[in-house]
Amino acid sequence: MHSPGATSFHVLTVTGLRPGTRYRFAASSGGVTPAPVLNIYEGPLDTVTTLDAPVGPLAGTVVTTNDTHIGEDRDGIIFGDFPPPVTQARGARPYGEIMLESVIAGAHAAGASHLFVNGDLTAEARPVEVETAKRILDTFNGRWRVTRGNHDRPHDAAVDPVYLAAPPYRGPDQGEAGTDYRDSFGAVFEPRQQAWVEDGPGGIRVLGIDSTHRDRSGGVINGEQFTQIEEILQEDPLRPTVVMLHHPMTRDAQWTNIGGPDFTLADADAQRLQAVFAAAPGVRLVLGGHTHRVRRNTADPASGRRPPVYLETASAKNWPTGAMHLRVYGDRLTVNFRHAVGPEALAWAQRTRWSTFGLQSAYSLGRHTSRNLVVEL
Q1: What angle do CA 194, 186, 192 make, to 5 degrees?
Q2: Predicted structure pTM score
Q3: Residue 241: beta bridge partners?
């Protein structure tokens, strides 16, 4: 492989590999073996085992992503202006738009029929951010749908008049006297605290859940939506189902993410939802975003004897930047992380790789077995 100029990224596609086979590999650049970036989940790799071959033909491909943060101009902030944020290079386009466009280009290249964005589509659900996100999503040549993330929640126009251009929020918690909550996201995409269902390729069912709190970053699910979720799943409890909600929902996720338990789905709701899944054995994969990392979580006992795979998936807008490609076969899903590509996307990925005092890549990349796995249906 040859790059025409100095670059921090080398994108190489290896073909002709056999399923279920262990391979050893080595990398070098200009005759120098690179030092691997710190990954707190696993040591440096020099071997990889390919996934087992699926049974039956490919029925179709679904692409999922999350945390595009359309409208954001500072990346990597946790509290206030800490840590020091990463900003786009002078003259470059907004990074949220670049990364969503790259995800869509990758979905087109894979022949995907469906694209799902699992929350935090926008930076703060300002009307212009919602309009921009909708315009970009409409360039996808298949079926797309979104769940709501905490950044997409209703906002109080009494605090920020930019939201006066959005319609009033009419939801289960409209606000007290002196507040004027507006919901531009719900007017264009999905009503708050309502689930949706889509038919995917190969007969799979995709269930989207709104796990957002009106005012906080942590997640909740109200009673009405729980009833709706139960009714959807019990229509055909054995049907292979992929569930998407923005907030991770296991105790494993609660105690291993840097935001702590309050940053994930409330524990009582998480345990109740896992019990709902246990009563619908067709639920095989549960995807969460929000933490901006890739991590397969351990199910809690409430998930039953054959729990689904609980998987936190990477942010599109910061390292490692990309999307999950789900290929549907007769007996399984193959789940593979695909890095965002293209000159603009790779340039932005390089900037975010060293955010959070250089620790972003160590925290967010996860194990390669969480980025590439098989889910039995």
Answers
A1: 30
A2: 0.95
A3: 205, 283
